[in-house]
Specification:
The protein has 360 residues and is mainly beta. 6% of the residues lie in helices and 69% in strands. The strands form two sheets. The protein has a 23-stranded antiparallel sheet that branches. Strands 23-24 form a two-stranded antiparallel sheet.
């Protein structure tokens, strides 16, 4: 550092080549153990600018083999910019660029872009992994003191990922997400968050609106609304729900059909929910239990009586007992559930008539 400072102040333009070699690096924020780390670049200092030219970083890891990154960077009193040229990383390719600038009043603007392809990585504990994953991230931000207004877009259309216990196949179910909002560094919270997205053959449209999410000292959802439209129950249950049911009496749960869902949360507590089912089928066991062609809407409010709910099905089964079509009309309230009219469930040559049902 002393030699670099002398070159900076003593000449109009100066250059210094630096290189770092490490046999083994592990721990901290490193994703895995790195071997044969070799890093270096040519530093050029001119006036109030510092450039890093011909930057290189290479290392070996298992899995992943040899990774070789190449790029450049430039720093000045008013900002910086960096570029990662097409390079190899953990068996795949990576390309990225980032830029930051600041005006005379201290307000800043930043943007970044990242592209990954064929990215394969496995955490040492096995809890997180990717296989030939493809990802694209584009983000912009406006910074004013502790507040950063951001706009980010994320997409993935190839490869697989495992986030214990959920397995994701982005080739079969491509993912698209767009997020806007503001990050408050002083309160460590995200405000005015708006998230829009979809996942092919799983969720037609996902929308999340949150006035504030506090991340420290623990997660607090001050107020949020989640809306999922055209959710495919077969894929959602098998990919997102079934892994959490393994080892329980519900591990054989299966579903088909589609649904719309609305959920409201205030201070981490659900306050309202609406569910609309279309041609749904639910199966579980043992004993074999099924409800087929289930359709209707369910409404729930935490503080008051919700609008009437109705569910109807064409057929059902419990063990070896077949059940005929039936309709359930009820009302949900803070005190529980109440039938609005008797329910008639055909069984063999007769029927079970429920005159009153109360759940609290």
């Amino acid at each position: 550092m002393i030699a670099l400072l002398a070159l900076w102040t003593g000449q109009a333009t100066a250059a210094l080549q630096i290189r770092l070699q490490v046999g083994k690096a592990e721990g901290g924020a490193l994703p895995s153990v790195l071997h044969d780390v070799d890093a270096g670049c040519v530093l050029e200092a001119a006036a109030s600018m510092l450039r890093c030219q011909d930057a290189k970083l290479s290392f070996r890891s298992e899995p992943g083999g040899l990774s070789e990154l190449r790029g450049s960077g430039e720093w000045s009193t008013s900002g910086w910019q960096a570029q990662l040229l097409p390079s190899t990383l953990f068996g795949g390719s990576v390309e990225a660029q980032a830029r930051y600038s600041r005006d005379a009043r201290g307000r800043g603007e930043a943007d970044a872009a990242l592209k990954l392809a064929g990215f394969s990585y496995e955490q040492a504990s096995g809890r997180y992994a990717t296989d030939k994953a493809q990802l694209r991230l584009d983000a912009q931000a406006r910074l004013d003191g502790p507040i950063a207004h951001f706009d980010a877009r994320l997409s993935s259309s190839a490869g697989q990922a495992y986030i214990e216990p959920v397995f994701l196949d982005f080739g079969q179910n491509p993912l698209e997400l767009v997020a806007t909002g503001s990050w408050d560094a002083a309160s460590r919270s995200i405000r005015d968050l708006r998230l829009e997205g979809s996942q092919h053959d799983l969720i037609g449209r996902l929308s999340v609106n949150a006035t504030a999410l506090r991340l420290s000292p623990s997660l607090l959802v001050e107020q949020a609304n989640l809306q999922a439209s055209d959710a495919r129950l077969d894929g959602l249950v098998s990919r997102y729900l079934a892994p959490f049911l393994a080892g329980t009496r519900w591990e054989s749960l299966g579903a088909a059909g589609s649904a719309d869902l609305h959920l409201a949360i205030t201070h981490n507590v659900p306050t309202a929910a609406d569910l609309e089912l279309r041609s749904a089928t639910l199966k579980a066991g043992p004993p074999p239990t099924a409800i087929e062609h289930l359709a209707g809407s369910v409404h729930w409010l935490r503080e008051r009586v919700a609008p009437p709910s109705v569910l109807g099905w064409r057929a059902a089964q419990y063990a070896s007992l077949p059940l005929g079509p039936a309709t359930l009309r009820f009302e949900a309230s803070p005190l529980g559930l109440r039938l609005l009219e008797p329910m008639r469930q055909p069984i063999l040559d007769g029927a079970l008539v429920v005159q009153r049902l109360a759940l609290a």
